[in-house]
Amino acid sequence: MSLLEIDDVTVKFGERRSAWIERLGLARESVTAVADASLNIEAGEAVGIVGESGSGKTTLMRAVLGLAPLHSGEIRFRGTPLTQQRSIETRRAIQMVFQDPGTTLNPSRRVGESIEELLKVHRLAGSATERKKRVAELFDRVRLPATAQRAYPRELSGGQKQRVAIARSLALEPSILIADEATSALDVIVQASVLDLFAELRADTGITLIFITHDLTLVRYLCERAVVMRSGRVVETNTVAELFDSPRERYTQELIAAVPQLPATSEVHTSW
Ligand SMILES: Nc1ncnc2c1ncn2[C@@H]1O[C@H](COP(=O)(O)OP(=O)(O)O)[C@@H](O)[C@H]1O
Ligand SMILES: [Mg+2]
Predict the structure, then answer these.
(1) Is the pLDDT score of 20 beyond 80?
(2) CB atoms within 10 A of CB 76
């Protein structure tokens, strides 16, 4: 049994429509965003999901989170099928960080307070003092200075905001962290430092990482295994070494050929 098992999952949009929509002739063809996708993820692994824009990467992960209903197939977490209705513990266990961290941060709250509030709502740290201590640990964990706790989101840089978003996800003590193009909006140097943070989190906490990106270089740096998606389908699942050295699918070869030659991430001086 793998930690997360995705079995023949299909997700369609625009399937359910009202009689009114039909009668007004507004009904459009339904879109199959994910088609018969299967993927197993082991505890502690870092798996990349790659593919061009529109290939179904985000939708597949939204289905894992219960945010996109399955047309068919099954998703199991620790052997138990995940339904739309799920316990708070199960929801906490899988967390996602997005390309734009601004969308998950409350603009009118200091970022430290937001996370304290989250801990309180989820009853994850006993007293106010313990919550403050936990927030301090989380900021340290994502390599933000303690002073950043008092900042409002607008006062932080893109890289700092993404670190806060990661801290917020980690506050819920997930077993799986999904990063959806989480470094794509950052400039290359900041991107390298956030990638380093993901690598560090894995090494230190053993968290399972699913890293969605259209950029194969990032997968090479961070993941052992990768899944290539195209038009909603998983076209190749392979170790990263094999994927780059002897890709099985023509489409994967094309994706690799399209990668610009950048210096290795370790050669980039990191700072934020
Ligand atoms: N909420 C939605 N309603 C209708 N179509 C959608 C919706 N979300 C995604 N799609 C479509 O599903 C396909 C896959 O999209 P997405 O999962 O966002 O791809 P990716 O993350 O790989 O860029 C695309 O054709 C997209 O237009
Ligand atoms: Mg996407």
Answers:
(1) no
(2) 16
Residue nearest to atom 25 of ligand 1 (CA): 54
* Full set of structural domains in the chain with CATH: 4-103+173-267 (3.40.50.300)
d(CA 199, CA 14): 38
- Sheet of strand 46-50: strand arrangement: 94-97, 176-180, 208-213, 46-50, 225-230, 233-239
* Residue 31: strand pairing partners: 13
The response to whether residue 53 sits with its C-beta less than 6 Å from ligand 1 reads yes
As a whole number of Å, the CA-based R_g of the chain is 20
Q: Residue 232 and residue 35: Cα distance in Å, rounded?
A: 5
100-144 confidence digits (pLDDT tens): 887 788 999 999 999 999 999 999 988 999 999 999 999 999 999
Q: How far apart are CA 194 and CA 148, in angstroms?
A: 16
Residues, Cβ < 5 Å to ion ligand 2 = 58
Q: Specify the pTM.
A: 0.90
111-121 vs 158-171: helix axis angle to the nearest 10? 20
